[in-house]
Amino acid sequence: MVERRPLLTAVSHLVLLLGVAIVAFPVLVAFIGSTQTAEQIAGSNPLSLWPGSNLLESYRLALFGGKTTGGATIAPVAPMLWVSLVSALTIAVGKIAISLLSAFAIVYFRFPFRQLVFWMIFVTLMLPVEVRIAPTYAVVSDLKMLNTYAGLTVPLIASATATFLFRQFFLTVPDELVEAARMDGAGPMRFFKDVLLPLSRTSIAALFVIQFIYGWNQYLWPLLVTTSEDMYPVVLGIKRAIFGEVYVEWNVVMATAILAMLPPALVVILMQKWFVKGLVDTEK
Q1: Peptide bond into 26 cis (omega under 30)
Q2: Would you tell me which of 65, 99, 222, 255 could form a disulfide with 162, CB atoms 3.0–4.6 Å apart?
């Protein structure tokens, strides 16, 4: 029987509420700033926490661009959101697909140096893209992949972490399932498609959320491989909005930041149940 302790419950709820407030307050400030004009933000010290009446105009300028009342030219964020969406989806789906197939091959196929291949994949955890950025950039440049979706996504697709997680899960699948599939005449890919993929769906969902956010938040790699504005992701758009003009339109910057947060937030909210289940469910 679980003992009820009202004081402990109240303290734990207070800590949770404090944590939520700390995380949510910057988002609230950004949203309120997006409802005000640039003059109101620049003229208030500290920033007013009362919403303004410039909401629609700020988001219109952020999404579709145009000239502000101060004469500044705003680049549209809508194409940048599309670039970020395509890149994040490609990276997430590519990582999961490659990791599933590589883990399947390592666990269920007997070939020479199988363990060595796995450890070679695992060792790449010590070599993130920031460490190998110079040779990777040279390869992408030689292959004429600058300012392309392939250049933005292909070097980031391989994932040793996802391969390791799927391998550990496949090792827990009972051998009886393999024998039953073999007796029914199922080949390796049929077993993979009809047995392993359905069993892995919660793990796939959890990894999709993590990898989507990873791809969406990429900054350093797109900064190197994109020189054309039509291939900028939204994270670079925020940087450009801050440093692109002498007079910063902070209301548009705040609106761009809110727009950049919405897609990953929606992915987490819509897939929350699968995400949590994939991380904590042990009854595979």
Answers
A1: no
A2: 99
